[in-house]
Design goal:
Layout: H1 12-39, H2 45-52, H3 71-82, H4 87-99, H5 102-107, H6 110-122, E1 127-130, E2 146-150, E3 153-164, E4 171-177, E5 186-192, E6 198-203, E7 214-225, E8 229-230, H7 236-241, H8 244-272, E9 274-275, E10 278-279, H9 284-312, H10 318-342, H11 353-360, H12 371-381
Parallel strand pairs: 1-4
Antiparallel strand pairs: 2-3, 3-7, 4-5, 5-8, 6-7, 9-10
Helix pairs in contact: 1-3, 3-8, 4-8, 8-9, 8-10, 8-11, 9-10, 10-11, 10-12
The protein binds flavin-adenine dinucleotide.
Length: 387
C-alpha cells in the first residue's frame, strides 16, 4: 500500500476517528459495495445507520445533531468512506452531506434546520440538490424551472436532469426562477419528494459510479409552502455559491481517493505478476508509471488539503478550490489509466477494481463544474473574464 506522510496534518483525535471510520467501512459498507454496483443504487438504510453512529453531518452544528467537527475531521471521514470501493454510493453520500446541504446550513432559518438539517444529520431525511436542467448545465444562472408565488405557496413547474439521489431523496434543494432572467432572478426551494406533481421521469444508465442513482425529475404544478424558501427570494444563486467550495472539495477527495486505490492495486499487482521471470514492477517502464501515479496523488492531496484549510479559515478560496478539483480530477484519470495498463488484460475485466475506478473517476471532470468552468474561475481571479 502507498502511504502518504500526512501525520503533520492530523492530530490524535483525527487519527482515532480515522481508525473508527475505517473499521465501520470495512465491516458495514465494503461488503455491500458489489451488490450496490450491480443493483444501480445503494441501500438507503445505510444513511440511517450512519446517522445513528454519528457518521453524518461531521461539520454541522451539534444542535442539529451534527458533530460540530473541523474540516480536517471531515476530510478524514471523506477519505475513509471512499475506501468502501463503491464511489457511486460515496458520491451520493457526499451529495447529501457536502453538496446539497451546505446552503441549508449556511442560510436556512432555525425552523428549516430543525425540520431538515436535523434529518440530514440523523440520516432520517435523504437530501438531493437540483440545479441542472436539460437545456442549462454549466450556465446555472439561465435555469428555467419556474416558481410563482400564489398566496402561501410557490407553484413550481419545470424539469431537472442528472440529479443524484433522485429516486431516494426525501427532499430536494431545487434551484428555481422566481424573478428576472439571470442570477438575480434565482431562488432555492426545499421541495418534499412526496409532494403531488413531483415525479422521477428517468433513471440514467451511466458509464460509472453505478452504485448511485442519477435521474431526471419533473415538477408539474408542485405546491411548495412559502416557508420552504431557502434564503431570500431572488438571492438563491448567492446562497448556492456558499456551498460550491464544499461540493468541489468533496469531489476532489473522491478523485484522489480513486487514484489512491488504483495505485494500491497497481503496487500489489506489480509485485505479484511475473513475466520474463521477474515481477513486472522490476521493469523500469512499470516502476516509473507507479512513480508518476504516486506523484499525481501527492500533488492532488496537497492542493486539496491547502484549499480545505483556506475554506476552514473563511479565506476566499474559489480559485484554490477550483485548482484542487481540476488537478485532482485530471490526475485521477491519468492514474487509473496507468493502473489499467499495469494490470494488462485483467485491467479491462469487470471484476477488477481498476476497471471500475477507470469508469468512475471520469465524472469528476464533469460534475460539480466541468474542468473548463474550473479553469474559467481560476483565470477570472487572474483578471481574465471569458463570460
Ligand atoms: C453522474 C452525474 C451526477 C450529477 N449530479 C448532479 C446533481 O446531483 N445535481 C445537479 O444539479 N447536477 C448534477 N449533475 C450535472 C452536472 O453538474 C452537469 O453535467 C455539469 O455541470 C455540466 O453541465 P452539462 O452536462 O449540461 O454540460 P454543458 O454545460 O452543456 O457543457 C458541455 C461542454 O461545454 C463546455 N462549456 C460550457 N460552457 C463553457 C464555457 N463558458 N467555456 C468553456 N467551455 C464551456 C463544458 O465544460 C462541457 O465540456 C450530474 C451529472 C452527472 C453526469
Amino acid at each position: 500500500m502507498y502511504e502518504s506522510k500526512d501525520a503533520y496534518f492530523f492530530n490524535e483525535d483525527h487519527v482515532a476517528f480515522r481508525d473508527s471510520v475505517r473499521r465501520f467501512v470495512q465491516k458495514e459498507v465494503t461488503p455491500k459495495a458489489d451488490e450496490w454496483e450491480d443493483r444501480g443504487c445503494y441501500d438507503k438504510m445505510i444513511f440511517k445507520r450512519m446517522g445513528d453512529l454519528g457518521l453524518l453531518g461531521i461539520k454541522y452544528p451539534i444542535e442539529y445533531c451534527g458533530q460540530g467537527a473541523d474540516t480536517r475531521m471531515n476530510l478524514v471521514w471523506m477519505e475513509e468512506m471512499c475506501r468502501c470501493k463503491a464511489l457511486g454510493f460515496v458520491m451520493s453520500l457526499f451529495v447529501h452531506t457536502d453538496m446539497a446541504s451546505p446552503a441549508l446550513n449556511n442560510v436556512g432559518t432555525p425552523e428549516q434546520k430543525n425540520k431538515y438539517l436535523r434529518g440530514v444529520c440523523t440520516g432520517e431525511k435523504l437530501m438531493a440538490v437540483a440545479m441542472t436542467e436539460p437545456n442549462h448545465g454549466s450556465d446555472v444562472a439561465a435555469i428555467e424551472t419556474r416558481a410563482v408565488l400564489e398566496g402561501d405557496h410557490y407553484r413550481v413547474n419545470g424539469a431537472k436532469t442528472f440529479i443524484t439521489n433522485g429516486t431516494q431523496a426525501d427532499f430536494i434543494n431545487v434551484v428555481v426562477r422566481t424573478g428576472a432572467p439571470g442570477v438575480k432572478g434565482v431562488s432555492l426551494l426545499l421541495v418534499d419528494t412526496d409532494s403531488p406533481g413531483f415525479s422521477v421521469s428517468k433513471k440514467f444508465n451511466k458509464t460509472g459510479l453505478l452504485s448511485s442513482d442519477t435521474t431526471e425529475l419533473v415538477f408539474e404544478d408542485v405546491m411548495v409552502p412559502k416557508e420552504n424558501l431557502l434564503g431570500k427570494e431572488n438571492q438563491g444563486f448567492y446562497a448556492l455559491m456558499t456551498g460550491l467550495e464544499s461540493e468541489r472539495l468533496s469531489l476532489a477527495v473522491l478523485a484522489y481517493m480513486g487514484a489512491a486505490m488504483a495505485l494500491d492495486e497497481s503496487i500489489k499487482y506489480a509485485k505479484e505478476r511475473i513475466q520474463f521471470d521477474r515481477p513486472i514492477g522490476n521493469f523500469q517502464a512499470i516502476a516509473h508509471q507507479l512513480a508518476d501515479m504516486a506523484t499525481d496523488l501527492e500533488a492532488s492531496k496537497r492542493l486539496v488539503y491547502h484549499a480545505a484549510l483556506l475554506y476552514d479559515k473563511g479565506i476566499k478560496c474559489a480559485s484554490e478550490v477550483s485548482m484542487a478539483k481540476v488537478f485532482a480530477a485530471e490526475a485521477a484519470c491519468r492514474v487509473v489509466a496507468n493502473a489499467v495498463q499495469i494490470h494488462g488484460g485483467y485491467g479491462y475485466i469487470r471484476e477488477y477494481l481498476v476497471d471500475r475506478l477507470y469508469r468512475d473517476v471520469r465524472l469528476f471532470n464533469i460534475g460539480g463544474g466541468t474542468r473548463e468552468i474550473m479553469r474559467d474561475i481560476i483565470a477570472k481571479e487572474m483578471g481574465f473574464r471569458s463570460r
